[in-house]
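Slide 14.
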Amino acid sequence: MESFQEIYCIRCGSQKLKRWDELSADEKFLAERLPQSATVSLEERKRHLFCPLCWNEVDDNRSEFC
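Slide 15: predicted structure.
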């Protein structure tokens, strides 16, 4: 179920967080090279949200967002 709560990046405040399937090919290329790629599998990271402005990456867990 979708939440009506606005989700935004805790690092830069952007409201443009994207799911993996919303990223363009270029954005996926960059996301695959973020620091978390060294410790978290790609399958797990596909459940994360990404900020295309500052490249903050967070698990899609609503408690981590304001």
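Speaker note: The beta strands are 18-19, 48-50, 57-59.
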